[in-house]
Specification:
heterodimer, A: alpha/beta, 23% helix, B: 252 residues, 67% helix
Amino acid sequence: MITEAKVYTALEDVKDPEIPVISVVDLGVIHNVEIADNERVTVEMTPTFAGCPAIDAMKSDIYRAMQEQLDLPKERVTVNVLYNQVWTTNKITERGRVILKGFGLSPPPEFDGMLTLEVLQNAVCPNCNSNNTFMMSTFGPTACRAIHHCNNCKETFEQFKPL
Amino acid sequence: MNFDAIKELLYRLADDDLIMGHRNSEWTGLGPILEEDIAFSSMAQDAVGHAQAYYIILHQLLQEPAPDTIAFARHHSEFRSCHLVEHPIGGYAFSLVRHALYDTAKSIRLEALSNSSFRPLSNLAQKIGREQRYHQLHAETWLRQLGNSTQEAKTRLQNGLNEAYPLAFSLFEPTLYHDAMVDTGLQISEAELEAQWMEKVQALVLASGLQLPEIEDKTVAYGGRYGKHTAFLPPMLEEMTEVFVIDPQATW
């Protein structure tokens, strides 16, 4: 019996290829899971940044996870990428934030409504937890990361950009 | 719903982003400092992704060809991009000023499109609009800092502005179905967008210690929205499509 819970558990095995410690579930990109007749699964996901090149890899990893963990062949799985859903970093789970920090990436601050300049420029150092940091570059090694520097421990670090 | 107007709008939005993205990607490996190399490469990646998202709407909802086919298999006369984005990257100053002019316009346009009567477009504009804040922040930070630094930087930026500014009005060239587009609430008028853009650009240029050149004729760089392009576009497309053309059926 395929249940939504089983599908989500299987999806926890699918990691972001650019940050291979966080799953698509903790990243908050799984929009919806539907099961029909106990044999067909439809997964709806939203890209983080619209130009994220990892989307296709995540898609094929989802097919692989469904096959390996639920014995569902590709013909019975549909993965839809939705561009009409706004993904925001507020959708990253609490567990996801802890994982990001452990990976050395400053988790994006949670924010209400507007993505203000203040939100964009403030990052907490993942090494010493200081707020005394400054943004060095709005763009980093991947579309979703910015480069900041910590005045307290003098380390330069990457942040998962708030979006 | 006026589908001709919707298609025209999506094509011009997407083509601007695709061509601008490709041009900015030409800085990869050449940026004056590592951070700027990365910034232009990242902005290029975002812009090409935005173009793809528009092409996906065209394909999935409006029966146009597949996104890759649209991007790589059209003749240059079928592109609806404006002249501003077609020009070669030139020096860093020109590219930086062009990026500021382009992304300021794009931010304003996306905000307006967030209220478009075509829901798939308004949803997408809201999504892309959030990413756009980083592009805007990048442009404004660098323009202000360099414009207020050395005389050489100022001179270079001013030259870049003198060159890019007259071309930038091509961003607001009304398309064939412009009036229908406005009447059906797809987008506010180009004149209105241009006025909002002028206001923001004037403030940014002032804050950067630069001067806007006098413009006699805003239409000098018009034509792109009707498929009439500069001589720069065909060779750029030839390079961009080189790999695709070898084997259009190849899977990646």
